[in-house]
Amino acid sequence: MLKIGNVRVPLCDGVSRRSFLEAGAASTLGLSLPLLNRLQAAGAVDESKAKIKNCITIFLVGSPGHLDTWDMKPDAPENIRGKFKPIKTNVPGIQICEHFPRMAKMMDKVALIRSLHHKTGASHENGQRWMMSGHDYSEANKQPYMGSVLSRVFGPKGALPSSIILPVKIGNTGTSTPHGQESAFLGSGHEPFFLGGDPALSTFKVANLEPPAGQTEFRVDARRRLLKDIDDVQRRVESGSTLERDTAYARAFNLLTNPETKQAFDLNKEPDKLRDRYGRNTLGQSCLMARRLVERGSRFVTINHFDTVFGISCWDMHADGGSLNNTYADYEHLLMPQFDMAFTALMEDLEQRGLLKDTVVAVLSEFGRTPGINGRGGRDHYPSAWTNFLAGGNIRGGQVIGSTDKLGAAPHDNPIEPPRIVASIYHAMGIDLETTMMPGPGGRPVRFIDADPIRELS
Amino acid sequence: MDQKFEGTPKATLTLAGRKVTRSEVENHWGSRLQWKVSRDGKEIATVGAGLEPTFEHTDGAAGKYEVVLQIFKYVNYAKDKDGKFTESKYVDASTPVTYTI
């Protein structure tokens, strides 16, 4: 049996009409509230049994080549193995790229998944949707981002939003299709909060926390009271969608006026030495901010390492001589050193503060890159095989899950598709995926994710 | 959103014989570090600085040696036809130390 809140419904054979109607009504009436209370009552989400409380995802937009990073093939022909050399790690038998020397020293905390793949297309956006939501989908059938689902289930822990994306939204990565970082049918009250600025810059301010030019905090507060009065009237006569907008308004005002939330975003509170350890760059300072945010109550923080693949140094290593001209030089001199510093600083910092046991750090990307190096010295999109990894929280580090063949061209054993990573995170958060559903479009019950957690991870 | 780098990365070098030791880098941009070695005013080697704070160049030919720590400064991703950066480059992150063989 499945449960939708405390309503039992049959598995697989569809949902009974009575259950469907009850669930739909429940979801409409409770739209602005987290599902947690109802799911807890049904025994489907038990936070005391949750293995983790937080998740930080570092999303490598553009996607590094697996053969150049975490699934090296030093015995493959030269046009496949690439330019870089593998190095030993602190786990016998596991090697990674020479340009991740800090990460190599903490491999005992990391679980590499080397057999990821998906089959729905080689655009960046296909991979973004898969990795951020566990689904691929069209504009007409949007699915919610992981952070939005967790916001819907658990609600906020404090004044901060449950789900925050740093530093900015993903913009143009090639096609005009969704990037997988939206609340979809869960409604605007569960949209992730986008920082909207570069925390590495001395001029940084949280764009979404600044009152509009010319407005003092007094005026903002006065407007909040006025809006509340109007909404009180509306609430008596309107439907659930109004309640949902109320939540978004309330959240915006709370962020604007709460000194605690403003402090959470203020990296000047951190020692210079620690800021240096993360790296004084967009990724490093975003990772530091992610730690501050989970420390203060955010449950799910995603760091987009780049918002576009065009005209900037990023992971999208086509070496095309034009607007996609990333090469091995970008990897060696800039991207890999930045990542190595930022990721390991985050892990160390979380551990030193006692947060690592409750926080999974997931490093995700859209796909791998072609095993064969192209005629210009780059690698192109390759969703047939790639490596991502998780660390911290309930993750059993020092292991490799799955493998690819000799050329890194296809999964060799234990092939794993993106939904299983999403399922692993939901499961670790305490959601019973076997017995729980959530309100989908129009209140229709839908499963959180149609996949099993990766059992080897924990 | 392209990356912009502010401030000046700075480390202090100390020399003991031919062995150079660097301090932590203040205002570290997070990009790659390297040692640049010159002899009699001509660059003879660049070596990745890695995690080890100490470095000793192996060349024992006679001459006046200068060693400096450098960091990669990203300006933009413009490259030449061989894929090498044209504007982004390594810049000094320390004052040099010198010794003579």
Commentary on this structure:
The complex is a heterodimer of chains A (458) and B (101). Chain A folds into three domains: 1-46 and 435-445, no CATH class; 51-204 and 265-429, Alkaline Phosphatase, subunit A, CATH 3.40.720; 207-258, no CATH class. Chain A is globular, with a radius of gyration of 22 Å. With 458 residues, chain A is of the alpha/beta class. Chain A has helices at residues 17-29, 36-41, 78-81, 101-104, 124-133, 146-154, 217-237, 240-257, 259-264, 272-278, 282-295, 328-352, 418-428, and strands at 2-4, 7-9, 54-60, 86-88, 95-97, 110-116, 163-166, 193-194, 300-305, 359-365, 368-369, 381-382, 386-392, 399-401, 403-404, 411-413, 437-439, 445-447. Mean pLDDT of chain A is 87; it is low at 1-32. In chain A, strands 8-7-9-3-10-13-6-14 form an eight-stranded mixed sheet, sandwiched between helices. Chain A has a two-stranded antiparallel sheet with strand order 1-2. A two-stranded antiparallel ribbon of chain A has the order 4-5. The mean pLDDT of chain B is 95. In chain B, β3 and β4 (42-48) form a beta hairpin. Chain B is mostly beta strands and 101 residues long. In chain B, the strands form two sheets. In chain B, strands 3, 4, 6, 7 and 8 form a five-stranded antiparallel sheet that branches. A three-stranded antiparallel sheet of chain B has the order 1-2-5, with no helix packed on it. Chain B has strands at 13-16, 19-22, 33-39, 42-48, 54-56, 64-73, 89-92, 97-100. Chain B has a single domain, classed as Immunoglobulin-like (Sandwich), CATH 2.60.40. At the A-B interface, α10, α11 and α12 of A face loops of B.
